[in-house]
Amino acid sequence: MTMPPLLRVAVLDDDDDLAATVARLLSRNALPASAFSVPHSLLDALPSGDFGCVVSDIQMGEVDGFTFAETLRAADPCVALVFMTAWPTTTHAVDAVRRYGGLDYLEKPIDEARLIAAVREGLDWSGRERRIAAITQSFTRREREVFDLLVRGHSNKEIAERLSISARTVEDHRAAIVTKTRANGLSQLIALSRGEEV
Amino acid sequence: MMTGRVLPFSKPLPLHRLALRASDLPLLALYGLAFALLHWASHPWSGLGFFSLWYPAAGLRFAVLWRRGTRLTPWLILTEVLTDGIVGTIPLTGVAAVQGITGAMRPGLTCGIAIAVARRLSRGKSEALALPPMILGIAAVLAPLLNAAMVLPFAMFLPDAGRYQLGVATIISLIGLTVGDLLGILVLAPALLWLAALIEADVRLPAITPERRRRLAAALLEHTIVLTLSLVLTMLMLRAGVGVRPAPGLLAGAWIGLRHGRVAAWVAILVQVAAFLPFSAVELDDGERLTLHLWITGIVLVTWLAGSFSDAQKAAREVLERRNRLLFQAERLKTLRAMSVAVIHEISQPLSTLAIEARHLRDATAGLDPDIADSAALVDRKAQALSELVRRLRRFGGRDVDEPAALPVMTLLQTARQIVAPELNATLGTLFIAPVPPDLVVQVQEIELTQALVNLLRNAIAASPGRTVSIITRKDGEDVRIAVSNPLDRPEPSGPDTYAGMGVGLVIARTIVEAHGGTLARGDADGSARFVLSLPLVPASPLPADLLPPDLLSGARA
């Protein structure tokens, strides 16, 4: 299996200078990053950009960070989000983490070590999500159901009962799954379901 | 709180409050003497039936009860009865004694009741009628009316009840009683009360400034003209054969009272009374005297109430002005807070860029000429210090506004844990939360209280990096106590910076907790710093005891 291409980081802030500075900081720390100052230019670049993590300001001129986060999630559910803000509030901190799936909520001036740690974590998470998506997208709906139960440790017989199909059919699906993933046994399937590289 | 709707004396009085104190005795002795003198002084105006038409002793009684409290009522009554007995006003033997003694008890009792009622009715109200000057005015009118109204009920059960027949003579004598008491109270009581306040240093005579002297002289001149005009007008009307008419006096009294308050009103009353009383004491027959005294009473009443109302209005205006000043102050603070938040924001944005670039510059120049490297390092250090300052200022200052709601303590702790989690990770510390009973619920503004708890946790994490901070919650009666503690190597946090940061966070946490009716106290124990946050619990729903699980019952108190 070939190594997946290295995921990039997008930095979004309506302050050009800060966006560029944060992007350069990340690049210096072996985290290739691009700077954006307008949300829609980042969304435009999304299909070709291969972004694993977006570092976004919350209070921006036209679109606020949370609205942007929803649009971004709809466009690509595998991108990790890190928020930064100059107006930190407890409500926002809770919202950023609970409702918008942000990995961290950073106050400006930014704590560099914390930012880098959060971005690294985000890229890892995104990589895993992408691998899981890549594997399961070739499955049929039934294969997906069988796969989900299989990696949770259910036997063929139990799966057959749960899905109300014959054990024979389960074995067929299982064979198809192994062929498609080129996995070598159940333990590798479980590893794949967790997004681990095999 | 229950206010004026409760009828006074509907509850049994706490009797010990009525007990005679040693310090009352000189007052009572003096009162007996003064009462006898004033009683005697009123005799020139008596004669119609049995009541005096100008009875200053009622004013003395009213002033003492108003100033010293209605708890003295029974003792004043006793003193009056004894005095009357000693000077021979009432017989102390035979059937007439019962009549005399009950008659002598009535005015004191009704006066005490009138004062208590007026005070009770005004409690907790804020309109002009319930302000102190007006309450005194109302009580001063209520007392004589109540006294007259109680004459027949008091007499009804006496052996010779037949003495009082509801007829013209009785009505006239009751009017006379009211008039005499009203005049006595309104003329004498204000002066006595004012003197008492002056002696006991409640009020001070305002310093006589030239400005004040000028205003005083102007007021005096105005009053003299008004009073003179009214007297001249009254005399002219009398000469013209229309008889004694109160209209000019009423007008003058209302004018003076409304313009300059109670002191001016009292002076005007004194002048008018002084003009008429000597005249009515000798030259008039009983019918004419009663008519004249009715007119005077009307004038005195209007003057006095007008003065009281004017003072009450003034007091209300002062209260309003004070509130306006406070509101203005609060508004200014709000603006100031919004401004400082905006300034912090404006600084933090460019500072973010500056701090990152300074750090980069420091790292990039580390190997170069020491002169350049030192400069870059210095710029970096200052940028980081400034960043830290901005972060700290904002962290402890930002507050959202929301409505108080019932919130389980567990939820509060979990939210706070979520917020401080990144800081814990950064310092490699851990947070231990002891199990919290699920029935502990507080009524709070969630955001604010979370902020308070987060401030405490941040302080603890900063003071003991890499260690375990613990939160232990327990119920204590009707409160919940949340203890945040962190291990200490030294007894006190070191360094002025640490201390300053902790101070601000702590002050804000304490303000928030106290606004919720709770307390925040430091109570260090065995090598750890501990802050205990107490909050009142929302009372549990009134479940019958047999529905509660046994473990809850064993833990509950009272």
From TrEMBL, chain A:
<dbReference type="InterPro" id="IPR001789">
    <property type="entry name" value="Sig_transdc_resp-reg_receiver"/>
</dbReference>
<dbReference type="Pfam" id="PF00072">
    <property type="entry name" value="Response_reg"/>
</dbReference>
<dbReference type="InterPro" id="IPR000792">
    <property type="entry name" value="Tscrpt_reg_LuxR_C"/>
</dbReference>
<keyword id="KW-0238">DNA-binding</keyword>
<feature type="domain" description="HTH luxR-type">
    <location>
        <begin position="132"/>
        <end position="197"/>
    </location>
</feature>
<dbReference type="InterPro" id="IPR011006">
    <property type="entry name" value="CheY-like_superfamily"/>
</dbReference>
<dbReference type="InterPro" id="IPR016032">
    <property type="entry name" value="Sig_transdc_resp-reg_C-effctor"/>
</dbReference>
<keyword id="KW-0805">Transcription regulation</keyword>
<protein>
    <submittedName>
        <fullName>DNA-binding response regulator</fullName>
    </submittedName>
</protein>
<dbReference type="InterPro" id="IPR036388">
    <property type="entry name" value="WH-like_DNA-bd_sf"/>
</dbReference>
<dbReference type="Pfam" id="PF00196">
    <property type="entry name" value="GerE"/>
</dbReference>
<feature type="modified residue" description="4-aspartylphosphate">
    <location>
        <position position="57"/>
    </location>
</feature>
<dbReference type="GO" id="GO:0006355">
    <property type="term" value="P:regulation of DNA-templated transcription"/>
</dbReference>
<dbReference type="GO" id="GO:0003677">
    <property type="term" value="F:DNA binding"/>
</dbReference>
<feature type="domain" description="Response regulatory">
    <location>
        <begin position="8"/>
        <end position="123"/>
    </location>
</feature>
<keyword id="KW-0597">Phosphoprotein</keyword>
<dbReference type="GO" id="GO:0000160">
    <property type="term" value="P:phosphorelay signal transduction system"/>
</dbReference>
<keyword id="KW-0804">Transcription</keyword>
UniProtKB/TrEMBL annotation, chain B:
<dbReference type="InterPro" id="IPR004358">
    <property type="entry name" value="Sig_transdc_His_kin-like_C"/>
</dbReference>
<dbReference type="GO" id="GO:0004673">
    <property type="term" value="F:protein histidine kinase activity"/>
</dbReference>
<feature type="transmembrane region" description="Helical">
    <location>
        <begin position="47"/>
        <end position="66"/>
    </location>
</feature>
<keyword id="KW-0812">Transmembrane</keyword>
<dbReference type="GO" id="GO:0000160">
    <property type="term" value="P:phosphorelay signal transduction system"/>
</dbReference>
<dbReference type="Pfam" id="PF02518">
    <property type="entry name" value="HATPase_c"/>
</dbReference>
<feature type="transmembrane region" description="Helical">
    <location>
        <begin position="292"/>
        <end position="310"/>
    </location>
</feature>
<dbReference type="InterPro" id="IPR003594">
    <property type="entry name" value="HATPase_dom"/>
</dbReference>
<keyword id="KW-0472">Membrane</keyword>
<keyword id="KW-0547">Nucleotide-binding</keyword>
<keyword id="KW-0808">Transferase</keyword>
<keyword id="KW-0902">Two-component regulatory system</keyword>
<feature type="transmembrane region" description="Helical">
    <location>
        <begin position="263"/>
        <end position="280"/>
    </location>
</feature>
<keyword id="KW-1133">Transmembrane helix</keyword>
<feature type="transmembrane region" description="Helical">
    <location>
        <begin position="216"/>
        <end position="238"/>
    </location>
</feature>
<feature type="transmembrane region" description="Helical">
    <location>
        <begin position="129"/>
        <end position="156"/>
    </location>
</feature>
<dbReference type="InterPro" id="IPR036890">
    <property type="entry name" value="HATPase_C_sf"/>
</dbReference>
<feature type="transmembrane region" description="Helical">
    <location>
        <begin position="168"/>
        <end position="195"/>
    </location>
</feature>
<keyword id="KW-0067">ATP-binding</keyword>
<feature type="domain" description="Histidine kinase">
    <location>
        <begin position="342"/>
        <end position="539"/>
    </location>
</feature>
<keyword id="KW-0418">Kinase</keyword>
<dbReference type="GO" id="GO:0005524">
    <property type="term" value="F:ATP binding"/>
</dbReference>
